[in-house]
Specification:
- The protein has 149 residues and is α+β, with helices and mostly antiparallel strands.
- It has 5 helices and 6 strands.
- Strands 1, 2, 3, 4, 5 and 6 form a 6-stranded mixed sheet that branches.
- α1 crosses α2 (92-101).
- It starts with 19 loop residues before the first helix and ends in a 5-residue tail after the last helix.
- The relative contact order is 0.22.
Length: 149
C-alpha cells in the first residue's frame, strides 16, 4: 500500500482535517445499525493523531479510530487514559456500516500489521520521514495511528 502525505499526522496537506462532528454522527448511525451505542468521543490533539469514538453493546466495547487527515478508520480495544498502546481488532459489521456512511476506508488488522518495510512511503515528505526515523514504528498501524508529539 502506498501511503499519501500526512500519514504520520505531521505536515498534513492543507484542507485535509477530518470533520469530527460528521464522523461522530456516522458512528452514531453505525452503532444503531448494529444495536450498539456511542459511549464517548475523544478528539485528536497534538497527540494522538486520531479521533476516537467509543461504541458499546451488551457484550463488547470497541474504539473506532479515525485518522485526522487521511480517510482511514481502524478498530481497537479501548485504552485507558495515558496508555499509548493501540491493540487493533476487526469488526466487520461496524466496518460495513461505517464505510456505507463515510468516504473512509476501514483497515483490517492484517493491513495494519503490515511491516513498514512493505509499505510504500515515497509520497511522504522529508519531515515525515524524519518522524518515522525518530519514532521507529514497525507496522503500518503504528505509523498511521500514533501518539507522537
Amino acid at each position: 500500500m502506498k501511503l499519501p502525505p500526512g500519514a504520520t499526522g505531521f505536515n498534513p496537506p492543507p484542507g485535509t482535517q477530518a470533520d469530527l462532528r460528521a464522523f461522530t454522527a456516522a458512528c452514531h448511525h453505525a452503532a444503531r445499525a448494529i444495536d450498539a451505542t456511542v459511549t464517548g468521543v475523544t478528539p485528536a490533539g497534538v497527540t494522538p493523531n486520531f479521533h476516537t469514538v467509543d461504541i458499546a453493546d451488551a457484550q463488547h466495547h470497541i474504539a473506532v479510530l479515525r485518522h485526522t487527515t487521511l480517510p482511514f478508520i481502524a478498530f481497537a480495544r479501548p485504552h485507558a487514559d495515558g496508555d499509548v498502546t493501540v491493540t487493533f481488532v476487526d469488526h466487520p459489521d461496524l466496518a460495513a456500516a461505517l464505510t456505507n456512511l463515510t468516504d473512509a476506508q476501514a483497515l483490517t488488522v492484517e493491513q495494519l500489521r503490515t511491516p513498514l518495510s512493505q509499505v510504500d512511503l515515497s509520497a511522504l515528505d522529508p519531515h515525515e520521514h524524519d518522524q518515522i526515523g525518530y519514532w521507529k514504528p514497525n507496522t503500518m498501524g503504528e505509523l498511521l495511528f500514533n501518539f507522537w508529539d
